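wait is this the right file?? whatever heres the structure
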């Protein structure tokens, strides 16, 4: 597939491999942690709510970091930023196993997110510039790197923890980091630094966004215990300030005017938030159920999670061919129906439910994930011009992070004091609402739009 690409880069397949090895770090580390939460709870004496910050903080740092590093890569050169991101990720991954307390580990996770978030915008910049023919195939291959690493993260993490304990989920990054770093030095094209224009980065908007999200999570996670009422007015003020500031800024973190003028695109982002809410509630919640309620080990949990991951990866190519023939809408509807059915089937689970039935439910959810992953991205391209692809893709990633942050917050809130089947059913109802909204948004999409080419 890659061999047929023609490009201004002498070895485009090697360029894609180098970028792919780097960009898989963020989704891999975001999903491996799901199987490690139980072990980390015991290691640092944490509640589910506190442990959930390891997930929320990672995604929040990723959401805030990607737009910053996208513009910094334009200023300093994408190759320099790519190498710097690998170094930061390596430092964070090397320090995390020696964490003496939860705070240290949380800071390492944040820097791990910052380093790995640098790799996606800088890598995409080089691919878009240096692979001019066959660029769609190159982007498809990179999508395989990220989606596969995310899908199999829990299984990889489970096996590593089973045999080497939780530090192994950080140390496993080094083969990818080292290989990508060495290849990057020799393969990635250099670029002269441009004029440094830090004013182009919306630091104020990003800060207000982060303050709003963090204080909202703090408030929600405190509901089960002593409610932190101070966080609610701070949240409201931060988001109101964010709204008015973004409307005036010439290069905003989130272009609210564009979202208002392109309603279909806004609905795609909302739908992607809902899909990821369901996906990550399942991806994080199921390992907690398997380990803490059913007594499975990390390795066994990782093996069971393969049912969901394997189906998603198996369905994705078929979904791609279907999209080529019929557009994104039919695949999105199939994905919406599948995740709605899967979340409703969660309501049939009880303490004595046999494992084979749980695996069937996971297969249904995996089918939905396989349809949604690629069709959501293609739906995005239906509503943007080629010139808008970069900024739209960045906000698309932010939507993914918002969905995953929502999922970790829901789990932290509902499992904070009661990790039992009744509270798992509450999670299922939240996911069912998200699935219904995602299905409704799929049904309202126009049948097919003219595909943008790049």
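ok assuming it is, sequence goes like this
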């Amino acid at each position: 597939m890659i061999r047929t690409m023609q490009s201004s880069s002498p070895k485009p397949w090697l360029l894609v491999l180098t970028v792919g090895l780097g960009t898989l770090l963020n989704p891999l580390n975001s999903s491996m942690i799901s199987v490690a939460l139980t072990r980390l709870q015991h290691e640092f004496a944490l509640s589910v709510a506190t442990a959930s910050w390891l997930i929320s903080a990672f995604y929040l740092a990723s959401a805030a970091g990607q737009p910053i590093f996208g513009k910094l890569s334009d200023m300093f050169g994408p190759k320099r930023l790519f190498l710097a991101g690998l170094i930061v990720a390596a430092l964070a991954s090397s320090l995390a196993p020696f964490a003496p307390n939860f705070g240290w580990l949380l800071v390492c996770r944040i820097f791990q997110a910052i380093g790995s978030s640098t790799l996606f915008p800088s890598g995409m910049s080089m691919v878009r510039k240096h692979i001019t023919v066959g660029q769609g195939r190159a982007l498809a291959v990179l999508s395989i790197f990220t989606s596969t690493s995310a899908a199999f993260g829990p299984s990889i993490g489970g096996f590593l923890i089973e045999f080497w304990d939780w530090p192994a989920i950080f140390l496993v990054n080094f083969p990818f980091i080292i290989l990508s770093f060495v290849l990057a030095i020799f393969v990635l094209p250099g670029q002269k630094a441009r004029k440094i224009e830090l004013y182009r980065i919306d630091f104020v908007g990003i800060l207000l966004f982060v303050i709003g999200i963090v204080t909202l999570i703090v408030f929600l996670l405190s509901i089960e215990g002593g409610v932190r009422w101070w966080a609610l007015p701070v949240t409201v003020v931060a988001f109101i300030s964010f709204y008015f500031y973004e409307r005036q800024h010439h290069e905003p973190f989130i272009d609210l005017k564009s979202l208002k003028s392109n309603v279909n695109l806004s609905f795609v982002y909302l739908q992607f938030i809902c899909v990821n809410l369901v996906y990550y509630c399942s991806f994080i919640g199921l390992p907690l159920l398997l380990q803490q309620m059913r007594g499975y080990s990390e390795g066994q949990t990782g093996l069971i999670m393969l049912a969901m991951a394997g189906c998603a990866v198996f369905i994705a190519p078929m979904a791609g061919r279907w999209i080529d023939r019929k557009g994104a809408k039919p695949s999105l509807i199939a994905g919406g129906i599948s995740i709605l059915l899967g979340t409703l089937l969660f309501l049939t689970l009880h303490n004595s439910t046999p494992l084979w039935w749980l695996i069937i439910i996971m297969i249904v959810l995996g089918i939905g994930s396989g349809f949604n992953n690629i069709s959501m991205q293609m739906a995005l391209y239906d509503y943007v011009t080629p010139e808008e692809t970069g900024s739209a893709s960045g906000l698309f990633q932010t939507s993914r992070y918002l969905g995953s942050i929502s999922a970790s917050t829901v789990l932290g809130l509902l499992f904070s004091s009661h990790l039992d089947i009744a509270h798992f059913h509450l999670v299922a109802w939240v996911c069912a609402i998200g699935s219904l909204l995602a299905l409704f948004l799929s049904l309202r999409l126009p049948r097919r739009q003219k595909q943008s080419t790049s």
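The radius of gyration is 21 Å. so i think its the right one actually
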